[in-house]
Design brief:
The structure holds 3 protein chains of 3 kinds. Chain A is mainly alpha-helical. Chain A has helices at 3-31, 35-39, 49-59, 62-93, 97-108, 114-128, 134-142, 145-155, 160-168, 173-184, 186-202, 205-210, 219-226, 234-261. Chain A is globular. Chain B is mainly alpha-helical. The radius of gyration of chain B is 24 Å and the shape is flat. Chain B has 13 helices and 2 strands; from the N terminus they run αββαααααααααααα. Chain C folds into 2 domains: 2-169 and 329-380, D-Maltodextrin-Binding Protein, domain 2 (3-Layer(aba) Sandwich), CATH 3.40.190.10; 172-326 and 408-448, D-Maltodextrin-Binding Protein, domain 2, CATH 3.40.190.10. In chain C, 42% of the residues lie in helices and 12% in strands. Chain C has helices at 2-24, 67-81, 94-106, 121-130, 150-153, 178-183, 196-210, 223-231, 249-264, 273-281, 294-298, 342-351, 357-363, 373-376, 393-403, 413-428, 433-448, and strands at residues 56-61, 86-91, 116-120, 157-158, 161-162, 164-168, 172-177, 215-218, 267-270, 287-291, 308-311, 331-335. The chains are: A mainly alpha, B mainly alpha, C alpha/beta. The interface between B and C is large, with 41 and 45 residues.
């Protein structure tokens, strides 16, 4: 690569990163400022962080909300990944006309705005008594057409001769899946895990309908609580938002290596 | 048993295994999505205020075409779809192929930074964007300082600029998200292919179009369908950045449906009918995309 | 083959068991004030709906510094005579209250609702008329509604029945930066009992002397429009529920006045609520006109203490019944139909928000100003407020509140409000008032005709 081109590339990346990170910087600096300074557009970090933190702790049960959010997001991510990757694998590896048709029908499930199915879903859940529960939170989003399709598309590049070879060796189909497919598709799993965790973490409309109990509140609900009064404390709000953003960012940072460089010899 | 029938039974066995693999997921979708969907479909043929509903035939469906605000929202949504989705996907592809370069330094950091926007909580994102584009916000400050503008321009109170702010918001928030799929999809292309292309003297641009794009086709299809679906159901930006304004110039279909359900006198029959209108639009677009992009070579 | 099926089943069993263990803690997840979700299918009242026990009240409201604080104070007052009663306040943002209420009422399962919830006054008619089964008529509550300002109780009266106990006051006040006015040679008296014409004249003087507009407003939101309209006792609906937009002379004057304010540069439109508050605390404008709750936001700018003054709002010119008083915002307590112990809820409200001057004295510190007349006589209301130039602002506001003309919210309030906001936005952009109001009325009629 020529020097000029290299320079241009880094410059482009730096600009993109700056644009991406700037609002985040603003958030961090707002979290360290007094509310009135935030509304006055102060951009430099201040010294009010500890005060904001004290106010936040005093007004909201952050610990409990974080605990809930982690619990829901982790359980949902694990179950969702297993069930959806099984299905995506099944759709692609054993594909035939009938299964392709089922796939198209499943895709339809994501095309209706959630607002429309909210009431019937709520009726179902309240009849079975799943309001304010983990299962109530996770069940509607365990199996998503999006994840199934994602695994189906990536299974397309999973070489069929490996499967044939494994079958000749006498491996059962389920073992092929767990011992060959999952390790090979580490990068897809890492990406899927990031996305699923993030969606579960930020999920808001559904929990706000079924969680009526303070003990089940999640982080996004706490953030929403802070924006509702006649007066908004922007410094405190941005601190809460920061706390709400960090976990996804950390999950991403830890996993990004796996989905961008995770591939090992298995395919070759 | 004769040979052909044994072969048949093996096929049948695979077939059954396949069904077994996808049953848990399919069952969940059936119960969690299709059952409520059918209930919503029934609701879409009913009308009434609150919980008192009575059948009304297709009145809800014919009603939406006479609803000027809804029609405006359809136009707005398509505007976003046509402008924003292609730009976003191309940008995400370019970023992913740059960040897939093994010789690049700090790529983990770059990747994380570019992904960060979609992890940012909506409240922060909306607050920040509104303040950036405010009359005395940084954007106006920069433009007036640079002499491009004489006086601050009120971005969110003009129809076209309000739409553009929403598009910028969408690009900012979702480009990194799509990049993730491309990055993970690129792992299925062996790196040696790139090295070979380099030795053959292919320019990065040639490599991009001749190798990256064709081999990423399944992933591109996935992201195209997802983005189409996401844009047609766009809600957050319309509500939080512009509140649909000025004068409904930036309101989206989902935002209007939400208003119809929770802000205005609740009319769930009509809201359901509009939702199925979205379903039909997405289904048609997804069908076209599948036809074009989902061939197994 | 068998083996594969078995292993598949194992996988699904694993998944199911994980789901199950996720759900097993659901019982512990339910609130202290309500029963734990019961295992038997006989009871569908799982989750934390209204309190079942005889001596607990579950309440939904949303602002820790304001209405939650007030509710907790009310609980303290009530507990003095009823030590065994607990009030379980669940912090629920207003939008969530509305979403939860709509979801529960539409699906016909009210068991998730609390005993008492706080409702925005503007949404009261809509919710009670849409879901009559979800609320309780307060006729038997023993509350004397005549002690509240009439303009206030009107929000929560449907078919002559009271469904809400008024809580906070939304009386409109004009707030001005006296130090900025001074630079233009004006005082707060020049803004008291004036008309909008005088306001614009004053505004031009301020603009010339200081370069600052008098007021900022959020574009696309018609708060000021609605305040102006109500100040003349006019509404967007007629008594019979039909839309009153295109033939509403007061509204036409309002639209013209608003455009004039904007064109003269006396009023500046900003993009969002944050920017609106920012423009006030930054000193970009010389004042604002809003519900009295805006004082709490103004007071965050501690460095401006003593530089603010409060008076009434300007009145419309050329409109019958024009006054200098109006209302914006405010909320009332509603008792849901799911309330298991209505006697307790009634008695609680009757002896606190509708019967305790002590309570109103206690919550004055958070800015909650009563609409309950006896509270205004308390000495606490006559105390001077240093931030607002040593004026007895609370007493002033209670006085304003009694003079607010009542208006008709109507069931389709939000539809009409949005349609009018659209019309005004277009008028400011140069459209003809008559045509825009006609379009607005058509939109509202379209929404009403189902």
């Amino acid at each position: 690569m020529t020097k000029g081109r290299k320079f241009a590339m880094y410059l482009f990346l730096c600009i993109m990163s700056f644009i991406s990170v700037f609002p985040l910087y603003w958030m961090v600096s707002a979290a360290t400022n007094k509310s009135v300074d935030v509304t006055r557009g102060r951009l430099i970090p201040g010294t009010y962080l500890i005060e904001n933190f004290k106010n936040l702790i005093a007004s909201q049960n952050i610990g409990r909300a974080l605990g809930n959010s982690f619990k829901y997001a982790i359980i949902l991510t694990i179950i969702s990944l297993i069930i959806c990757s099984l299905a995506g694998y099944g759709f692609e590896i054993f594909h035939d006309k009938a299964k392709d048709a089922v796939m198209s029908v499943i895709l339809l499930a994501m095309m209706v705005p959630f607002v429309a199915t909210l009431i019937p879903l709520f009726q179902m859940f309240s009849k079975v008594g799943w309001l304010n529960s983990t299962i109530g939170f996770i069940l509607p989003t365990i199996s998503t057409p999006f994840l199934i399709m994602m695994f189906r598309q990536s299974a397309r590049s999973f070489p069929h001769d490996i499967i044939e070879a494994a079958r000749i060796d006498g491996l059962s189909e389920i073992r092929i899946f767990f011992q060959m497919f999952i390790p090979t598709m580490k990068s897809t799993y890492a990406a899927a895990m990031t996305i699923t965790f993030m969606n579960a973490w930020n999920n808001y409309l559904w929990p706000k309908v079924i969680m009526t109990d303070e003990k089940s509140m999640t982080m996004p609900m706490v953030v929403a609580n802070l924006t509702q009064g006649y007066v908004t404390d922007y410094g405190m709000l941005m601190l809460a938002v920061l706390i709400c953003t960090l976990p996804t960012a950390i999950v991403f940072f830890c996993l990004q290596k796996s989905f961008a460089e995770g591939i090992t010899g298995a395919v070759k | 048993m004769s040979k052909p029938s044994k072969k048949m039974s093996l096929d049948k066995k695979h077939n059954l295994t396949g069904w077994a693999f996808l049953t848990p997921a399919a069952l969940l979708i059936l119960v969690m999505s299709f059952v409520p969907m059918v209930k919503a479909l029934i609701l879409s043929f009913q009308t009434g205020v609150g919980a008192a509903m009575k059948p009304c035939g297709i009145a809800n469906y014919s009603r939406m075409f006479k609803d000027t605000v809804f029609m405006q929202s359809v136009k707005n949504t398509f505007f976003y779809l046509i402008i924003q989705v292609p730009i976003m996907l191309v940008l995400a592809l370019i970023l992913a192929s740059i960040l897939n370069n093994r010789n690049l330094r700090f790529k983990g950091l770059f990747r994380t930074m570019i992904f960060l926007p979609c992890a940012t909580s909506l409240v922060a994102y909306a607050t920040i964007f509104r303040s950036l584009f405010a009359n005395n916000g940084i954007i106006n400050l920069a433009l007036t300082k640079l002499g491009i503008l004489d006086a601050p321009y009120s971005f969110l109170t003009h129809p076209t600029s309000a739409k553009i702010v929403i598009i910028i918001g969408l690009l900012w928030r979702w480009t990194g998200y799509n990049m993730v799929f491309y990055l993970s999809g690129l792992q299925n292309i062996e790196y040696s292919v790139y090295e070979a292309a380099k030795i053959d003297g292919a320019s990065p641009i040639q490599t991009f179009f001749k190798i990256t794009v064709p081999l990423l086709k399944p992933t591109i299809l996935l992201t195209a369908i997802m983005s189409t679906n996401g844009t047609l159901q766009l809600f957050d930006e319309s509500v939080n950045l512009t509140d649909g304004g000025p004068a409904n110039a930036s309101i989206t279909m989902s935002h209007y449906i939400y208003n119809m359900s929770f802000k205005y006198v609740p009319n769930f029959g009509y809201a359901a009918a509009m939702s199925f209108f979205i379903l039909i639009l997405v289904a048609i677009l997804a069908f076209i995309q599948m036809k074009v992009g989902d061939k197994r070579d | 083959m068998k083996k594969k099926i078995v292993s598949l089943m194992l996988v699904s069993a694993m998944a199911v068991s994980m789901v199950a263990c996720g759900s097993s803690d659901s019982g512990s997840g339910s609130s202290s004030g309500s029963t734990a979700s019961s295992g038997d299918s006989a009871s569908t009242e799982s989750g934390s709906g209204a309190s079942e026990g005889g001596d607990t009240l579950t309440v939904w409201c949303w602002d820790p510094a304001f209405n939650i604080f007030s509710m907790e104070e009310a609980a303290k007052v009530y507990q003095k005579d009823h030590p065994d009663v607990t009030v379980n306040v669940v912090e629920t943002p207003w939008e969530d209250v509305q979403t939860k209420l709509t979801t529960a009422a539409t699906s016909g399962d009210l068991s998730t609702l609390p005993d008492i919830l706080l409702m925005q006054d503007n949404a009261f008619q809509k919710n009670v008329i849409s879901y009559p089964d979800a609320f309780t008529d307060l006729a038997d509550s023993g509350i004397d509604f005549s002690q509240f300002a009439e303009g206030k109780t009107a929000y929560s009266v449907v078919d002559g029945k009271n469904y809400g106990v008024p809580f906070d006051n939304g009386a409109v006040i004009g707030c001005y930066r006296t130090d900025i006015l001074e630079q233009a040679g004006l005082t707060i008296d020049d803004f008291t009992d004036i008309t909008w014409d005088q306001y614009i004249e004053n505004g031009k003087k301020v603009l010339e002397a200081t370069g600052k507009p008098l007021i900022s407003m959020q574009a696309g939101e018609c708060d000021l429009i609605m305040m102006m309209l109500q100040s003349a006792g006019s509404s967007l609906f007629n008594e019979d529920g039909t839309a009153n937009i295109v033939n509403n002379d007061a509204l036409k004057v309002v639209a013209e006045t608003y455009k004039e304010l904007k064109d003269a540069g006396v009023l500046i439109e900003v993009n969002s609520w944050d920017e609106y508050v920012g423009s006030i605390t930054n000193g970009d404008v010389a004042g604002t006109i809003n519900g009295c709750w805006i004082m709490a936001s103004i007071q965050t700018a501690e460095d401006q203490s003593g530089n603010w003054g409060i008076t009434n709002m300007p009145s419309l010119v050329g409109v019958d019944d024009a006054t200098n008083y109006s209302n914006n915002g405010g909320s009332s307590w509603a008792v849901t139909a799911n309330c298991q112990n209505k006697e307790l809820a009634f008695d609680f409200l009757a002896s606190t928000f509708a019967g305790s001057t002590e309570l109103y004295d206690n919550i004055l510190s958070c800015g909650a100003i009563a609409t309950w007349a006896p509270a205004g006589d308390s000495t606490a209301y006559a105390e001077p407020n240093e931030f607002f130039g040593g004026d007895a602002v609370s007493a002033k506001i209670v006085d304003y509140a009694t003079k607010v003309p009542s208006n008709i919210t109507g069931v389709y309030y939000y539809e009409a409000r949005d349609a009018v906001a659209t019309a005004i936005t277009n008028v400011i952009a140069g459209s003809d008032i008559e045509t825009e109001l006609q379009t607005a009325e058509d939109t509202v009629n379209f929404n009403m005709g189902q």
